[in-house]
C-alpha cells in the first residue's frame, strides 16, 4: 500500500468514493478546485484501488482538514488512521502547529475517531451543512503537531 499525493487522474475514482460514502458529497469540481488552489492531498492506494484520501490546507501555522474518506469497501481496517497520521505528519512538516476541522454533529463515528487522535471539541457552527434541515458543524482542533 502506498500513500501518495492525489493527482488530477485520481479525481474520477475519488469522486466515485465520495458519492458512495457521503450523503452530501463534494462535487468533482470541488476536488479539482482544491488541487488547483494548491491544497495538499493524500491518496491511499493498493495495486489497483484507491482505498481512501484526504484533502487539507496549510496556511502558516494552521492546518485545516477539508475532507477525509475511506471507501466503504475498505472501512474498519485502519486505513483512516493511516491517512490521518500522514495528514498530521505532512501538516507538521509544512509548518503547522494546530489542525482544525468541521464535522456534522450527528457523525458520532467520525467525532469518536478524531477524539482518539487528540482532537478537542471547540465550538458549534450553526446551520453549517446543507440538508433539510440544515445541520450544525462541530468545530474540532488538535494542538501540538
Summary tags:
single chain, 145 residues, alpha+beta, Aminopeptidase, seven-stranded mixed sheet, 37% strand, globular
- The gross shape turns out to be globular
- Tell how many strands the DSSP assignment holds: 7
Gross CATH architecture of the domain at 2-102: 3-Layer(aba) Sandwich
Mean pLDDT: 95
Distance between the termini: 24 Å
> Which CATH first-tier class of the domain at 2-102 would you pick?
Alpha Beta
What is the CATH topology classification name of the domain at 2-102?
Aminopeptidase
Query: In which order are the strands of the major sheet placed?
Result: 1-2-3-4-5-7-6
Strand percentage:
35-45%
Number of helices: 4
Helical amount among residues, as a percent range? 25-40%
CATH superfamily of the domain at 2-102: Gcn5-related N-acetyltransferase (GNAT)
Question: What ranges have pLDDT less than 50 throughout 5 or more consecutive residues?
Answer: none
Oligomer: single chain
Describe the protein.
The protein has 145 residues and is α+β, with helices and mostly antiparallel strands. It has a domain at 2-102: 3-Layer(aba) Sandwich (Aminopeptidase), CATH 3.40.630.30. It is built from four helices and seven strands. The chain has helices at 11-21, 28-36, 79-93, 108-116; strands spanning 2-4, 40-45, 50-59, 62-70, 98-104, 120-129, 135-143. The chain has a seven-stranded mixed beta sheet, with helices on both faces. Strand 4, helix 3 and strand 5 form a beta-alpha-beta unit. The longest helix is centred in the middle third of the chain and has 15 residues, at 79-93. It is globular, with a radius of gyration of 15 Å. The model has no long low-confidence stretch (mean pLDDT 95).
Amino acid at each position: 500500500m502506498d500513500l501518495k499525493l492525489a493527482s488530477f487522474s485520481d479525481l474520477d475514482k475519488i469522486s466515485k468514493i465520495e458519492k458512495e460514502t457521503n450523503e452530501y458529497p463534494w462535487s468533482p469540481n470541488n476536488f479539482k478546485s482544491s488541487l488547483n488552489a494548491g491544497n495538499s492531498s493524500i491518496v491511499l492506494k493498493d495495486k489497483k484501488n484507491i482505498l481512501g484520501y484526504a484533502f487539507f490546507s496549510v496556511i502558516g501555522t494552521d492546518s485545516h482538514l477539508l475532507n477525509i474518506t475511506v471507501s466503504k469497501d475498505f472501512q474498519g481496517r485502519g486505513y483512516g488512521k493511516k491517512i490521518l497520521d500522514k495528514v498530521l505528519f505532512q501538516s507538521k512538516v509544512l509548518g503547522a502547529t494546530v489542525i482544525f476541522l468541521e464535522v456534522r454533529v450527528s457523525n458520532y463515528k467520525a467525532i469518536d475517531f478524531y477524539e482518539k487522535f487528540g482532537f478537542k471539541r471547540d465550538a458549534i457552527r450553526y446551520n453549517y451543512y446543507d440538508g433539510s434541515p440544515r445541520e450544525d458543524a462541530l468545530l474540532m482542533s488538535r494542538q501540538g503537531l
